[in-house]
Specification:
Elements lengths: L14 E5 L5 H5 L3 H4 L4 E6 L12 E5 L13 E7 L8 H11 E12 L15 H16 L5 H11 L7 E7 L7 H29 L4 H16 L6 E7 L5
Parallel strand pairs: 1-2, 1-4, 2-3, 4-5
Antiparallel strand pairs: 5-7, 6-7
Helix pairs in contact: 3-5, 4-6, 6-7
Length: about 250
């Protein structure tokens, strides 16, 4: 997002929450949201206690499941941040309704999601090859687990259906690998390649073996093929990133 902390036009929100905060990267480490808004009380929630102990004084981390009943008061937050929660939420209609009910009037929800399908503009990803298979298999795995990995296709309508207005959609290209001639995209591509290298096995091993009938050996071989192919700069792969920042009435 061109080094922006957020796209929503927030100004000194009193309370903010980062849902699915993970290691707290967005809240404290890289984007420094807590330091940018020192007067904002910020909560980062996740199912796992993997956040850093050192953090700004206006930020706290809590273990919480956003798919359960929310423990916060209604009309409590001014800003809700959601990122890469695809595959984690089965009932998005309920989730957006909870977000709406717990935002102050005029508050914003901002959500950024990836599309798992790898694309190329120059035909370097051939239909049926291992990179083309990534998206198809990821979508099938999400369906088998009961959580869609294509939330970006419906989130604009679902967010509006929950009552939000002025839904703004922004789309970015995120290269996989350092193949771009643009220095910024090349740098982003290096990070996304690392993202794939470190995360692919955790995404595929359980879902492919338990839900899709693959053997352990077949998954390991397929992952190795994906890793090898992504390193070849002749494949100009990228993912679409979608960001939306509506507000409630």
């Amino acid at each position: 997002m061109n080094d922006k902390l957020h796209l929503a036009p927030i100004q000194n929100p009193r309370r903010a929450i980062d849902i699915g905060t993970g290691t707290g990267t967005w809240a404290v480490l890289h984007s420094d949201f807590a330091e940018a808004y020192p007067n904002t009380s910020i909560i980062g929630t996740d199912l796992s206690p993997i956040q850093p102990e050192t953090k700004p004084p206006n930020l706290i981390f809590e273990i919480d499941d956003c798919c359960s009943d929310w423990v916060y008061p209604k009309n409590h937050f001014d800003y809700i941040h959601v990122r890469q929660m695809y595959g984690s939420i089965a009932d998005w209609h309920r989730f957006y309704k909870d977000c709406y009910d717990h935002l102050n009037p005029g508050g914003y929800i901002e959500q950024a999601e990836l599309n798992p399908v790898l694309k190329s503009d120059d035909g370097s990803i051939v239909p049926g090859d291992v990179l083309d298979q990534c998206g198809t298999l990821a979508i099938q795995a999400g369906i088998s687990l009961g959580s869609s990995l294509e939330v970006e296709k419906s989130m604009q309508d679902d967010i509006a259906r929950a009552g939000f207005i002025d839904v703004v959609k922004t789309t970015y290209k995120w290269p996989v690998g350092a193949w771009s001639n643009d220095p910024r995209l090349k740098e982003l591509g290096k990070w996304n390649l690392l993202h794939w290298q470190q995360g692919l096995e955790s995404w595929t091993l359980r879902s492919f073996t338990k839900r899709m009938g693959w053997s352990y050996e077949a998954v390991k071989k397929w992952n190795a093929d994906v890793h090898r192919t992504l390193k070849e700069r002749k494949h100009h792969a990228y993912q679409d990133v979608y960001a939306k920042n509506p507000h409630n009435i």
